[in-house]
Write a structure and sequence with these properties.
Helix content is about 30%, strand content about 25%. The chain has helices at about 45-50, 75-80, 95-100, 115-130, 145-160, 175-190, 205-210, 225-230, 235-240, and strands at about 5-15, 20-30, 35-40, 60-65, 70, 80-85, 165, 195-200, 210-215, 220-225, 245-250, 255-260. Helix 4 packs antiparallel against helix 5 (about 145-160). The longest helix is centred in the middle third of the chain and has 18 residues, at about 175-190. The strands form 3 sheets. It has a 6-stranded mixed sheet with strand order 6-7-8-3-9-10, sandwiched between helices.
């Protein structure tokens, strides 16, 4: 099992030049849990993740790991505890899959120790877990977008950190591989106790896989907690500007968002007035929303958009 570290942000402000993207965020990542950050386009999700990982220095406030400002932690020590899979990483030209995955072992290398058997095992396990062992000798340049994404996830796994931050780890993946990656991260959390923090586009997958959800809107945290407490129709409207019906996912029991667009929405049915003396059907209201009848239907992913 991994060690449980505390990762917190206090009055965090961050951005790019004069543009403020994260605006006074306070949060504490639950140790040993799966946390998912949701929010609309350009709301600050990725910027928040980068700041938590020390890729971006805050303009105000602080990020602490076990009570220590992360900017005061030696780089190699931090990399043994906290790993990051950023959005749209770039691989060195001509590198093969096994070598790229092996770069996840860099924080564990000593100056004179060289590559070890433990490194071999970690890389092999990561390749197998992500289903890309057969691609080990292939050039990353030759792979599809989905295959490349699995290689990057494998590199993050090979790093074997206690906290793993992932920015849109299901990008470019078809639905089968999305579920495989999220199941893999859940396995990592449950078997090793790894603390997972990730940004996801799909609200329904976020609600299904998260123990803890953080909703970000215009650079601020507007809600956080268990999925059943956070993913509501009111929250979806506030954060995404989307009218929706939130029902129970018949597979997982988690909240499921059914979006209401301008098209392909079943109308509210209002029956004609009954003859005198004949009561209206149902509860006597004279109308009903027929959308719940479609709860068991497959509705596809609800995409929250890319991060800032």
């Amino acid at each position: 099992m991994t060690a449980h570290h505390t990762l917190t942000a206090e009055r965090l402000v961050a951005g790019y030049g004069d543009r403020k993207v994260v605006d006074g965020i306070d949060l504490a990542v639950p140790p040993g849990a799966v946390t998912v950050i949701i929010g609309a386009n350009a709301c600050g999700k990725s910027t928040l993740l980068k700041t938590l990982a020390r890729l971006l220095a805050p303009t105000a406030g602080s990020v602490t790991l076990d009570g220590r400002d992360i900017h005061h932690v030696p780089t190699r020590d931090l990399a043994r505890s906290l790993g990051l899979l950023p959005q749209s990483p770039i691989a060195p030209e001509g590198i093969v899959v096994a070598d790229l995955v092996g770069r996840g072992r860099h924080p564990h290398q000593r100056m004179f120790s060289g590559w070890s058997k433990a490194d071999d095992v970690a890389v092999a396990e990561a390749l197998t877990a992500t289903g890309i062992a057969d691609l080990a000798d292939r050039s990353v340049d030759e792979l599809s977008g989905g295959q490349r994404q699995r290689v990057w996830v494998a590199m993050a796994l090979a790093q074997q950190t206690d906290i793993l931050l992932l920015d849109e780890p299901t990008t470019f993946l078809d639905v089968t591989h999305q579920i495989e990656i999220l199941d893999l991260l859940t396995d990592l959390n449950r078997t090793r106790g790894t603390t997972i923090v990730m940004v996801l586009h799909d609200i329904n997958l976020a609600a299904r896989y998260a123990d803890h959800v953080i909703a970000v809107h215009r650079g601020r945290v507007v809600a956080s907690g268990a999925p059943n407490d956070v993913v509501t129709a009111d929250l979806v409207h506030e954060v995404f500007g989307l009218d929706s019906l939130v029902v129970t996912d018949q597979v997982s029991g988690s909240p499921m968002v059914l979006p209401r667009g301008r098209h392909h929405v079943r109308p509210v049915v209002t029956p004609a007035d009954p003859p005198p003396g004949v009561p209206r059907g149902g509860d006597g209201s004279g109308s009903r929303d027929v959308a719940p009848a479609a709860v068991a239907a497959a509705v596809g992913p609800v995409t929250a958009g890319s991060a800032a």
